Amino acid sequence: MPAEFPDVQAVMDWEREARTGLCEAVFAEGKTVACLAGILENAAAQSRRLLVTRLSTEVFGRLPAASRDALDYDEVSRTAILGPAPHAPDAHVAVVSAGMSDAPVAREVGRTLQFAGVGARQIADVGVAGLWRLMARLEEIREHRVVVAVAGMEGALFSVLAGLVSAPVIAVPTSVGYGVGSGGHLAFHSALGSCAPGVVAVNIDNGFGGAQAALRILNLLRPRDAA
Amino acid sequence: MPAEFPDVQAVMDWEREARTGLCEAVFAEGKTVACLAGILENAAAQSRRLLVTRLSTEVFGRLPAASRDALDYDEVSRTAILGPAPHAPDAHVAVVSAGMSDAPVAREVGRTLQFAGVGARQIADVGVAGLWRLMARLEEIREHRVVVAVAGMEGALFSVLAGLVSAPVIAVPTSVGYGVGSGGHLAFHSALGSCAPGVVAVNIDNGFGGAQAALRILNLLRPRDAA
Amino acid sequence: MPAEFPDVQAVMDWEREARTGLCEAVFAEGKTVACLAGILENAAAQSRRLLVTRLSTEVFGRLPAASRDALDYDEVSRTAILGPAPHAPDAHVAVVSAGMSDAPVAREVGRTLQFAGVGARQIADVGVAGLWRLMARLEEIREHRVVVAVAGMEGALFSVLAGLVSAPVIAVPTSVGYGVGSGGHLAFHSALGSCAPGVVAVNIDNGFGGAQAALRILNLLRPRDAA
Amino acid sequence: MPAEFPDVQAVMDWEREARTGLCEAVFAEGKTVACLAGILENAAAQSRRLLVTRLSTEVFGRLPAASRDALDYDEVSRTAILGPAPHAPDAHVAVVSAGMSDAPVAREVGRTLQFAGVGARQIADVGVAGLWRLMARLEEIREHRVVVAVAGMEGALFSVLAGLVSAPVIAVPTSVGYGVGSGGHLAFHSALGSCAPGVVAVNIDNGFGGAQAALRILNLLRPRDAA
Amino acid sequence: MPAEFPDVQAVMDWEREARTGLCEAVFAEGKTVACLAGILENAAAQSRRLLVTRLSTEVFGRLPAASRDALDYDEVSRTAILGPAPHAPDAHVAVVSAGMSDAPVAREVGRTLQFAGVGARQIADVGVAGLWRLMARLEEIREHRVVVAVAGMEGALFSVLAGLVSAPVIAVPTSVGYGVGSGGHLAFHSALGSCAPGVVAVNIDNGFGGAQAALRILNLLRPRDAA
Amino acid sequence: MPAEFPDVQAVMDWEREARTGLCEAVFAEGKTVACLAGILENAAAQSRRLLVTRLSTEVFGRLPAASRDALDYDEVSRTAILGPAPHAPDAHVAVVSAGMSDAPVAREVGRTLQFAGVGARQIADVGVAGLWRLMARLEEIREHRVVVAVAGMEGALFSVLAGLVSAPVIAVPTSVGYGVGSGGHLAFHSALGSCAPGVVAVNIDNGFGGAQAALRILNLLRPRDAA
Amino acid sequence: MPAEFPDVQAVMDWEREARTGLCEAVFAEGKTVACLAGILENAAAQSRRLLVTRLSTEVFGRLPAASRDALDYDEVSRTAILGPAPHAPDAHVAVVSAGMSDAPVAREVGRTLQFAGVGARQIADVGVAGLWRLMARLEEIREHRVVVAVAGMEGALFSVLAGLVSAPVIAVPTSVGYGVGSGGHLAFHSALGSCAPGVVAVNIDNGFGGAQAALRILNLLRPRDAA
Amino acid sequence: MPAEFPDVQAVMDWEREARTGLCEAVFAEGKTVACLAGILENAAAQSRRLLVTRLSTEVFGRLPAASRDALDYDEVSRTAILGPAPHAPDAHVAVVSAGMSDAPVAREVGRTLQFAGVGARQIADVGVAGLWRLMARLEEIREHRVVVAVAGMEGALFSVLAGLVSAPVIAVPTSVGYGVGSGGHLAFHSALGSCAPGVVAVNIDNGFGGAQAALRILNLLRPRDAA
Questions:
Q1: CB pairs under 8 A between E and H
Q2: Which residues of G touch E91 (CB under 8 A)?
Q3: Strands C199-201 and C169-173
Q4: Could you list the pLDDT tens digit for every one of the 227 residues in chain D?
Q5: pTM of the full predicted structure?
Q6: CB-based contact (8 Å) between D133 and chain B?
Q7: What gap in Å lies between CA B213 and CA B194, rounded to an integer?
């Protein structure tokens, strides 16, 4: 390799957490195994905690054994956590998802919150095609400070839910769907074009981002100097 | 004008009704006042009934007085009916609409059905952002044979409604909305990408088409030889 | 796995059929083999009938032998039926398809109807590029109560057919096509922008949904208390 | 005005006709009245023939009286012809249009051909929603060397027609339609995604271009040295 | 008007505020002057407070004098407030906008918050093309609990701002821009595709929605029983 | 398989050639090997000629040996010809292509013409980025009756070429390109939005269709009764 | 107006020119007459030079007489210059445009350069449909350091030109066109998907931006310390 | 193969460099191994230098050993250089990239410049989500004559950077991103819709084109006769 092209090397921004109150994370998709292994070794050597998202089973399996052993890996959400998870006594966030196929994204929300020491309750399979399922769990949902709603297809859950609760509702559209609903753009637009006021959204399949938004909100509940 | 260009003249297809059981109608948008006046005079001379859709107040006002007097014109739905309306004793169709701005399209559905001698009940302002409004009228909706649902914005009404009734649900998306919901494409895609099975849709703002679809279905309920 | 993430487990909604008159089905695409196997075992243990759609040959082959043996699997439509099929004496539905490549979707319509005990006649390869093929079978098509039209590419079949029959016409656009017709969006828009009044459509490749819409209509023909 | 910005002045390319066998024309839309008047005066001074397209009634009315008097103006097609029209004994081109609203574009095709001395027959209002209308005139259409098909909405006419005739079929999609069919993109894509082989298309509402394409073809029928 | 079409009449949902903690508002765009006048008279008769959004100067001018006198109308944001505004002692929300043309939307955010009794500070003209302007006011922005960012064009402000503050950042994309940035879709997608984690967005030009989202968050800071 | 689902079987339309003057062809993409083998055997048994398009090397290799031996297969264009090729003495068509990657589509044009007994000359690698290459072969191109232009990326070749020749120009856009040019939509739109009058286009990568359009035109040059 | 909403007031960034070497300009579209008048008065009071773009004749006419008199206004490009224009001895930039309708944008390029003291030569009406027009002026174009190419419709000029000159080519796509070419997106994508290497583009109709890009390049030719 | 289809053979345009000052390069994507091998052998036989772009590791591995040995291959940028690299003493170009995943494109820029004998400095991982990283290297960036900015996702880097430097800024959007940012269209539009004046862009992932644009600019700095 010519001298003017130094090795591609990730420079983790360990100071970010201090500055913004949000934890550092690595988006694994599109990174080589070597690059990921380097990041993990570097973090381990510095005894730092780290969240890895979009880490497929296949790539996880190709990491060095030492890295694999050090990680708490969850296949469904494709997330891995390096280092100890803080104790998260109460669930402040309700993660409400529409269908079984939305589970990976809903769980990415939960794992990101877990990494940040925030408890979350998964309320799954309450899509609006069978409205009674959502109604049956409404009181339980209302007990939480923040609601993260996860849905694909036509995303009708976002409007219905936002009309029923007064808490902040963060919509995480998923790429579940086909035909006119393929790629998640329909759910995504539904979240933003919602007839229920005050729904906000993050990018398609961005469970990590939905959790980060929840964390920004929950930060407000801490004593002011911590915000 | 050169001889090879004869006058543009509408040739109404008066036999269509006999063939398909669906009534003849004129889509006024994009036609000149002279063209519309000609059609109306021709129909009146033949004592034929006629439904005119998308007839703006402004164009209606510019029609000859004789035509205006012969028409039953409704400003909200921009429809005009020429000739006697048949008696429509019972309401077989529930026209369920989400918001006040959907009224023109919902009423176009009703007027088209009225022209065909079919009764319809307007159930308005039951958008899902305030779910209780829909729930309060659910039993009433269920009494009808066919449900025509009219909604713009994110169109969540279609999914919710189809999950609650077993009758045919015909979605008529409207162009009500702005930003990501402008033009009606969001409501339209939501109807088709619905998580509730068996929802069908017609074109955006196509109240006439929604009514025609309902008529095709209701035809089945007549004695077989009439279908 | 952390305690707050219970196993992803499908909770079939066995009561849906009672409520809406529509049968329960499982959309296999995007579900893991383990998840599907669990659903099938659970249904078998409860002696319930079940329709599985979008079940690829590859996934079917990886199901437990017991599940495979219990299923009536059709490779072309990628559907599987668990439990006895009801007797379907007469064909009420004509499934009219444009080209050979539309066969999988047309057959998904037929299999879904079969599962619900409704007979259907497949009228294939009658695309409008060779109009005489459609004309030759027109009388046969007209004998049915409901027409489900299945077409990809530019979807001209929908308009032509709806102009020729008075029955309800449910358009099922397919993803057959390439270039400007790729993904099925062209056929899909053609169905909705049709110049023939009263055509309704479901999502692209949604043979199951087209059948469900037909069933909602046919329900109306039963004695009223069954609707 | 600073010296480096000379007056915007149209330099007509009078030699184009000699080179390509296609006549010079002026697209009026977006040009100022002054600019158009200048072009017309210049052409009149040189005794040149000229076709003006997309000339609205409003702009035509604001042209100098001398220019207006010199023009053969047709309001429907918004075309004006300067200079004598050549004799066009036989109709080689069938201009087949779907609905009344397609008349302006169909007539732009005819006027452009007329300017070039080519006869055309207008066969209007034969959209496929009422197939018998097209069938009734099929033999007449087949008598022409080239077929120009003009249709908006879902453009099903293009596929049906191309399956019925062996002549070249040039599709001119129009912007007639609304909702999913608005702007003409649906008709346009249908022309290209047609299931009938050998259909070709020009831009939306481009009646002039459709005629030019027909002229390129008809040029082939002249003695070879003229091509 | 036929008897089955009752007058279109808005049924305000005065109980919504009690249920969701969010105030009732009227979206004026697309409603007739008569409809709006009726709503205002009804609200005045019941001594209710009301926020009207998207009320153009032209429509405001056509309201009855009594209605106009009762309203606190702001031309820039096109909002009107009926009834007394609550005292809003401290500014909890920073409304940060990129350019002068974003002012109407930014002010709609502020007016909606004002109506709800929440103070807001407008920090305008800090687009990233001149980064020093944003940097100069960063400390001031950080003093607020919630940040509402308002930007059109390429929406780079959202990413930059979210990387600099730890508070919740609600992006309100505006339709300011032209060419590739016309309609606000570019700013809108930038907000969601942001490289800075935890940015959330509402619909294009939806200042009201951005404020409602902020109110949902600020509700959390009240004593728990009020949420 | 249930009795109501007969085997999917292609019914070749051998009479089409007689009716439209266009040959029968099979689009192999999306058809199973068994289906294709059946068609080929059936055609061979009836001693019919047949053109197969979009036949990948992989699928060709899986056909029965007897079918493979009977076919004249061309790997680059993915076309196969069954039966004798007619003698094609003169080249009436110039197939002009822009880059090396357009070769497969350009050759599909040529092979389709060859199957119909029409000679074609391939003029490759004359994209406009190096205009001198096109200029150097312009006289050669002008010797042909019809020009089929094949180009991907931004498709500038279509406009330039149509400005230089008076013959019919049929644009075949290809899916060669990436980023803004991916999928062929850019080349496709360029062909239709061309500033040179009279360019016509077929679908993306549709070399077969481009050739069929040329054949429709060349049919006109035969003695009239053959058209 | 409530106290917390100060008057919307433009704060011109007079220091920008010093920092970036690019002059300050005001985009008039979407700003009120009052706002523009304020900016102009403020600039005049400080004896500052100012370029106003997108200033329509109608808005210009409504400015105070004093402002109008102080401005050098050009109707075609909709630009106004306040203050003295620097001497621009040589033309370093060739502004090459395709059609007459591209003149306003081409002239905006020229006026922006003029304001910056850079000479430009307008080479108009050299679209590629008549290639000889471009060829006839190629040597003249090659004499300039930078080429700004202005074209709408299919934008083929960009590729052809970039293949013929070695200077930097800045493409300014215009919104000239209709149908598939409407809005300028086709020309815009053509510029970027060009087969000629090294073409760069700015936003649609952004003549100001094209000139600014040219100025950034020409800055490099000044003695280094000025860059 | 029939005689009329000569072998597809690349005719390299070795004279291009002389004409335009830009080097010849081969875009490997979509070319067969045999085609590439032929080009390389031909170039080697003529002792010509050659740049190959988009050459995947997999295709590189399948080239003949002699070709592989003759190439300087870089896996990250997927580029190969045949022949000696000229000496490039000083870095005139700053290649500024936003994230680790943009490295392949950033390096393609660098390798193309290296092939042309122009030095470049890679300034990586300075995305705006952590603005301090960009600020820390701003002075270093300002030392270069031309800035090539490489970013995916929402592409906010382009606007921020162009507001901070006066040099030409060439934006190379990358396809890094997902959901609303997938495919690179968001970054691409952000570059063009930028609020900072004078940003220009090339196609998505087009590092080669970005470098060619820089070379066109740097050519201006050579003594005039070399341009």
A1: 114
A2: 4
A3: parallel
A4: 343 444 434 455 555 555 555 567 899 988 889 889 999 999 999 899 999 999 999 999 999 999 999 999 999 999 999 998 777 667 899 999 999 889 999 999 999 999 999 999 999 999 998 899 999 999 999 999 999 999 999 999 999 999 999 999 999 999 999 998 888 999 999 999 988 889 999 999 999 999 999 999 999 988 654 43
A5: 0.92
A6: yes
A7: 19
